[in-house]
Design a protein that fits this description.
Length: about 475
């Protein structure tokens, strides 16, 4: 039996092969589950993307790959300029769409915090920090930061309705484009032919940046894998993870490698816990996945340049006898940052100016240092407050949703943000559009879950969703064949 909407899209019953999740308990909830499944994902697999969502898909896809155009293809200033122009056009389009809809533009608490952080940073630059920036009202560091904030506002659905699935697909496409560029310009071939060469140096100019962008592709595939129903889609997903993992290994990026191992471990543990409730045969698959992750990690540590770098770092820690020796390298930046923060606890020294303030030519290599030292305690609370607020709302969504797939996707979103916060210990993200896009995807997911009726029991949620669905979609034939 089928339910048909005004657009002509049909939804097969919950007993069909396309929907494999089941609501445990009363078998009479089949029809209500169908309704809830449709509302939960807004029929994401069947409703075509809007024009605005297509623009977002292109914007996110290019945001992670535009460095490859500047460095790898020797189009310095070209691809970035076109990307900024397209991002501005997308922002204005979303602004017009949001202004024209009922209720206007609605900023959630997390998006409001990020906007306030940007305003606070601009206020500092034009008042207390004007001398440090040469009295420039809009210094270069704020150009990419402003573009990244615009990407976040668009992807979060604050201006126009954007589904989280669209943004996540953009993250995967972005990683795929970056990988294709690396193959096309010979960066992969050079890294395979030389044991001392790290992949990404020719593509993006920095191996860690390359690995970080590929890492979002792995996370995005894990998220989309849960929503896919076709076996071919799942096979392509597994192949994509294998290829992206190999590329990260060739970069020698320890942060990205450790973050991926942690993310995959969390993913397989969640999958195993979910499989015990959904599909018993998936338990064996997840156990095999965990075993393969362990074998792969052992191979990387013993046979690759990545392993050599990991062992070198552990050896330095093992031989260190004093605090100074342990703090040698980038870790000592946290000591410098603490001194600068005490001297300027509220207004900071300026975003991106850690190297000048600390009298070193090195960047901070930490999002925490950059935000705390650059924008002070107020900016730190606003910026990271948005991250933790989204994490809390995702946790609430995990407890409220009755759909196993959506619950697992919420947990994967949490894992992705946790990996971003972990890697932020060794890199800054305030001007990285791809990080802001991932944060926007999480905010969009939270927004999708918040539109559902809040109730205390699964059956109440089902009944409420069924009532809402009947008002929106005419039922031409009932689930039992009667009108």
């Amino acid at each position: 039996m089928k339910l048909e909407s005004r657009r002509g899209w049909s939804y097969r019953s919950a007993n069909s092969g396309s929907i494999r999740d089941r609501v445990s308990g009363n078998p009479g909830t089949t029809g209500r589950y169908l309704v809830q499944n449709t509302l939960a994902g807004e029929a994401a697999q069947r409703v075509p993307y809007s024009f605005m969502e297509h623009m977002v898909l292109i914007l996110v896809s290019m945001s992670g790959a535009y460095y490859a155009g500047d460095v790898g293809l020797n189009l310095v200033g070209g691809s970035s300029r076109y990307l900024f122009m397209f991002g501005l056009a997308s922002f204005l389009m979303a602004l017009m769409v949001g202004s024209g809809k009922r209720g206007g533009i609605r900023l959630s608490a997390e998006t409001l915090l990020m906007v306030l952080w940007w305003l606070w940073t601009m206020l500092l630059i034009n008042t207390f920090q004007s001398a440090q920036f040469g009295n420039r009202a809009f210094p270069p560091v704020m150009r990419s930061t402003t573009f990244s904030l615009a990407v976040f506002l668009i992807c979060s659905g604050s201006l126009a309705r954007i589904r989280s699935e669209v943004v996540v697909k953009g993250l995967v496409i972005s990683a795929a484009l970056l990988a294709l560029v690396a193959v096309g310009i010979g960066d992969v071939r050079q890294s395979l032919g030389s044991s001392g060469y790290r992949l990404g140096q020719l593509t993006t100019g920095n191996s860690n940046d390359f690995a970080y962008r590929i890492l979002f592709g792995v996370m995005g595939i894990a998220y989309l894998y849960q929503g896919g129903s076709r076996r071919s889609t799942k096979l392509w997903s597994v192949a994509g993870v294998v290829v992206f993992t190999a590329l990260i290994g060739l970069t020698g990026s320890r942060k990205a490698f450790i973050a991926e191992v942690l993310f995959l471990a969390i993913y397989f543990v969640l999958q195993y816990a979910s499989a015990r409730k959904m599909r018993r045969n998936s338990a064996m698959v997840t156990l095999v996945g965990l075993l393969l992750v362990g074998i792969g990690m052992q191979f990387v540590v013993t046979k690759t340049q990545m392993g050599e770098r990991l062992k070198a770092g552990l050896e330095v820690e093992r031989q260190a006898t004093t605090t100074e020796e342990r703090m040698d390298g980038r870790a000592r930046f946290y000591v410098m940052a603490s001194v600068l923060f005490v001297e300027n606890p509220f207004v900071g020294v300026g975003l991106g100016r850690f190297g000048d303030a600390a009298r070193t030519q090195m960047a901070s290599h930490s999002d925490y240092i950059s935000i705390a030292v650059g924008t002070g305690s107020i900016g730190f609370l606003l910026y990271f407050g948005a991250y933790f607020l989204i994490l809390l709302r995702l946790q609430r969504a995990v407890g409220q949703t009755v759909l196993p797939t959506r619950r697992l996707q919420a947990q994967l979103m949490q894992s992705m943000l946790l990996m971003v916060l972990i890697t932020a210990l060794g890199r800054w993200n305030y001007d990285n559009a791809l990080t802001w896009a991932a944060l926007g995807a999480a905010a969009a997911f939270v927004r999708e879950e918040s539109v559902k009726t809040i109730s205390t029991t699964p059956n109440e949620k089902m009944d409420s969703a069924a009532t809402h669905f009947k008002r929106r979609v005419p039922v031409r034939s009932g689930l039992n064949g009667s009108r």
